[in-house]
């Protein structure tokens, strides 16, 4: 089985860039190492040592026959968890909102560098599941966008960043873990086409980017646990996508010894349940027993160990890798104090990412601020939790300004610059008088607002992982309204001040209709989950030292029901919406969103001209040899689209040009428009530049269930280029 794959790999790697990781050599080394291991050692490197059994959140047994360590696996997707000091980067959803490939790569590299410095072999991220089909899904903010293309590009850039530093990345959670309620018992019943075109899509990018590992999720798919689902693991991930790395379980997502092994699981984590005394170990000695009694073939254990070893060699972790520099369990609140400071100058990158992720939703000309005489700063979200930014373990409370969600996808803030801290610094330089009301009480808010030229009111909305309930929200959000009576707070402020600016810190969309109904709300700034540099990044945008350049990575609806999806209370989600989530649904149903996918204002304006489409592709299925990601020819270039963009305003700014494709009628029931390209470009006033969107065969294919292949349909395709999914500036067609 491997020989065929490696021949294709060797051939394809010639065509790729020289820096591509070399699985073939890694497998040669792994084969040699495997030959030296006895049965106990093989089982040991695929089995966790129990929860809290080692310094990291996941640890494996170290063999003595080869110089291979107890592997250290550590959360989280926004920075190393349970250790300090580290950098608290903006969350995945903000990284997605930058639409900036270079920043996504740099963020991955910085997380990789901190992980390596700490001796972490395996960084448990990035996240493409949940994809985010449910706007209130608790962990959506850990991932980048509910659009599979944007998510896929972000996955690829992040993985290349992390792995470029020599750290193994993990694409998680595979697959259909779209809500927190009942996540460990429910079944996501996803039809084959929807699985391929939405939920699997970003995992394809991850595999294509040579991700070392994939993590199977808590839920079932079609009534079978994902971690013992032969169709998902053996057939789709390992055969169809040709994934050469290893599949690990989410923490305690394994439910069997034999079925999981035979279905393609390669590593179990953490090797025990979370109870005291630790129990429920499915592998280790039981895996050996299952081989001895003939229910699991020896070749399967060899394959598991081979994959785990190959990933380790792939990243060069056999040479000079640092020892683990912390113990996660040193303090139940803060994790371990690192023996080294790995943060370097990452605060600068954290600020740039936070700044470039801010989406300006509305601006009647009040922004950027120009040394106002007085400012009222209002709301508990304007200040850092007085008990400290890390006061709630795993950030499981919503006290003070919101800068990350809660659960395992968090890390420790080394510090948190609150909005008020940063604004006060700017105000004192400008001689601006600042009045504050830093609770969410409406009376004091109105009084403060009445006494100032401009009022800035802060509201938020939080969510996280199911193991913590915050203010009655069991992971998923109960509503899409702002928390802490945010609508009432804004009404009170806008009732007292004619220039009210609303700043939103949120895990995802909130319904803004009440706020927009206040005529005195003259600007809305969406700051998402900005991480440690929150206040500084906000001041950069509010005062115009940079023009805002973030774009929404999801749709903001006028009402929650408009999404047509939402987390379910029961044990089954049949995914009845199919392909039609987020803007695909709004476009299909002709529903007007409040702020569409891809939307975001700037302090300048951009013109689009000279759209040029140069595409040539043959119809039919991709049939090439399997390389990591799928058939080789699926990734073939089919040409490019280009457009000229000019800055027609008065300040320097960045624009995210977006390319959407409309499929011909020959492709059955396909969304009207699907994102297939984006480029972020910075332009000075008057400057004009051409951007090009390279297209591959994959970009114009749909998943043909009958053929079990990616197929390019015949007919007229439409190419839309614009500043959002609805602000289309020009379009053209090509015919296949
Ligand atoms: C396998 O090797 C380990 C050392 O890594 C040793 O402790 C164990 O006894 C060996 N097991 C067998 C069955 O030889
Ligand atoms: C789940 O069931 C649907 C409906 O029968 C089918 O289209 C799909 O391929 C199945 N998926 C998996 C992973 O078994
Ligand atoms: C073989 O051993 C495994 C591990 O103890 C066990 O789960 C499985 O039921 C056994 N199968 C048979 C047929 O004895
Ligand atoms: C949170 O703050 C309270 C009150 O100041 C304090 O007693 C507690 O120790 C703090 N916990 C953490 C984890 O910082
Ligand atoms: C840009 O500058 C010109 C000339 O000073 C002025 O007329 C125009 O209103 C400015 N545009 C904006 C958007 O500020």
TrEMBL record:
* The EC number(s) this enzyme carries: 3.2.1.21
A Pfam entry, by short name: Glyco_hydro_3
Among InterPro entries, the record links this protein to:
Cellulose_deg_GH3, Fn3-like, GH, Glyco_hydro_3_C, Glyco_hydro_3_C_sf, Glyco_hydro_3_N, Glyco_hydro_3_N_sf, Ig-like_fold
Q: Which reaction does it catalyse?
A: Hydrolysis of terminal, non-reducing beta-D-glucosyl residues with release of beta-D-glucose
Reply yes or no: does the keyword Hydrolase apply: yes
Signal sequence, start to end: 1-20
Q: Name one GO biological process term.
A: cellulose catabolic process
Q: Where in the cell is it found?
A: Secreted
User: Which positions fall inside the Fibronectin type III-like domain?
Assistant: 655-725
Enzyme class label: hydrolase
**Pathway this chain belongs to:** Glycan metabolism; cellulose degradation
Keyword terms = Carbohydrate metabolism, Cellulose degradation, Glycoprotein, Glycosidase, Hydrolase, Polysaccharide degradation, Secreted, Signal
Q: Which family does it belong to?
A: Belongs to the glycosyl hydrolase 3 family.
Q: What's this chain's function?
A: Beta-glucosidases are one of a number of cellulolytic enzymes involved in the degradation of cellulosic biomass. Catalyzes the last step releasing glucose from the inhibitory cellobiose.
Would you tell me the protein name for this molecule? Probable beta-glucosidase L
């Amino acid at each position: 089985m491997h020989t065929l794959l490696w021949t294709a790999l060797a051939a394809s790697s010639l065509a790729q860039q020289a820096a591509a990781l070399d699985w073939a050599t890694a497998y040669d080394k792994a084969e040699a190492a495997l030959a030296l291991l006895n049965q106990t050692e093989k089982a040991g490197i695929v089995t966790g040592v129990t929860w809290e059994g080692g310094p990291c959140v996941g640890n494996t047994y170290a063999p003595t026959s080869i110089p291979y360590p107890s592997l250290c696996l550590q959360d989280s997707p926004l920075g190393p968890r349970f250790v300090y000091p580290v950098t608290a980067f903006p969350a995945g959803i903000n990284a997605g909102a930058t639409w900036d490939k270079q920043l996504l790569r740099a963020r991955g590299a910085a997380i990789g560098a901190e992980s390596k410095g700490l001796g972490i072999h395996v960084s448990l991220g990035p996240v493409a599941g949940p994809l985010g089909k449910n706007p209130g899904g608790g962990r959506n903010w850990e991932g980048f966008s509910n659009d599979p293309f944007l998510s896929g590009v972000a996955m690829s850039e992040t993985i290349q960043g992390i792995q470029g530093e020599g750290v193994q990345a993990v694409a998680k959670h595979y697959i259909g873990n779209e809500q927190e309620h009942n996540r460990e018992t429910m079944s996501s019943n996803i039809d084959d086409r929807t699985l391929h075109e939405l939920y699997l899509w970003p995992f394809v990018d991850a595999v294509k980017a040579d991700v070392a590992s994939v993590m199977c999720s808590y839920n079932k798919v079609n009534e079978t646990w994902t971690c013992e689902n032969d169709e998902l693991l053996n057939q789709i991930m390992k055969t169809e996508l040709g994934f050469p790395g290893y599949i690990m379980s989410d923490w305690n997502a394994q439910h069997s010894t034999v079925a999981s092994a035979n279905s393609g699981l390669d590593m179990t984590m953490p090797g025990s349940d979370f109870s005291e005394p630790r129990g429920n170990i499915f592998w280790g000695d039981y895996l050996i027993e299952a081989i001895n009694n003939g229910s699991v073939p020896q070749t399967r254990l060899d394959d598991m160990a081979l994959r785990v070893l190959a990933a380790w060699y792939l990243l060069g972790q056999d040479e000079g890798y640092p020892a683990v520099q912390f113990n996660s369990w040193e303090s139940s609140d803060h994790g371990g104090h690192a023996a080294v400071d790995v943060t370097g100058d990452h605060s600068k990158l954290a600020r740039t990412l936070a700044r470039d992720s801010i989406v300006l939703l509305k601006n009647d000309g009040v922004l950027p601020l120009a040394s106002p005489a007085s400012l009222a700063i209002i709301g508990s979200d304007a200040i850092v939790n007085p008990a400290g930014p890390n006061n709630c373990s795993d950030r499981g409370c919503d006290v003070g300004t919101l800068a990350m969600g809660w659960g395992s996808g968090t890390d420790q803030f080394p510090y948190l610059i609150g909005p008020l801290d940063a604004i006060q610094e700017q105000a004192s330089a400008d001689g601006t008088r600042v009045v504050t009301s830093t609770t969410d009480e409406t009376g004091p808010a109105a009084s403060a607002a009445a006494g100032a030229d401009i009022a800035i009111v802060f509201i938020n909305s939080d969510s996280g992982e199911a193991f913590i309930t915050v203010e009655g929200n069991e992971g998923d959000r109960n509503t899409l309204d702002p928390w802490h009576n945010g609508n009432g707070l804004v009404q009170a402020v806008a009732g007292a001040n004619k220039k009210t600016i609303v700043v939103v810190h949120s895990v995802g969309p909130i319904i803004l209709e009440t706020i927009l109904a206040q005529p005195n709300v003259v600007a809305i700034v969406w700051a998402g989950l900005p991480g440690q540099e929150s206040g500084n990044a906000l001041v950069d945008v509010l005062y115009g030292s940079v023009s805002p350049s973030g774009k929404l990575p999801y749709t903001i609806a006028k009402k929650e029901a408009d999404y047509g999806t939402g987390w379910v209370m029961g044990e089954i989600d049949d995914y009845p919406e199919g392909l039609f989530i987020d803007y695909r649904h709004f476009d299909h149903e002709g529903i007007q969103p409040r702020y569409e996918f891809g939307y975001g204002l700037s302090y300048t304006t951009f013109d689009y001209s000279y759209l040029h489409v140069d595409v040539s592709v043959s119809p039919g299925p991709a049939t090439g040899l399997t390389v990591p990601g799928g058939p080789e020819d699926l990734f073939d270039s089919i040409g490019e689209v280009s457009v000229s963009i000019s800055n027609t305003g008065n300040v320097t700014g960045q624009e995210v040009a977006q390319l959407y494709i409309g499929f011909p009628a020959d492709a059955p029931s396909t969304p009207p428009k699907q994102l297939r390209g984006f480029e972020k470009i910075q332009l000075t006033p008057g400057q004009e530049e051409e951007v090009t969107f390279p297209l591959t065969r994959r970009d114009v294919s749909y998943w043909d269930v009958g053929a079990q292949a990616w197929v390019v349909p015949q007919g007229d395709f439409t190419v839309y280029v614009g500043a959002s999914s609805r602000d289309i500036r020009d379009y053209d067609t090509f015919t296949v």
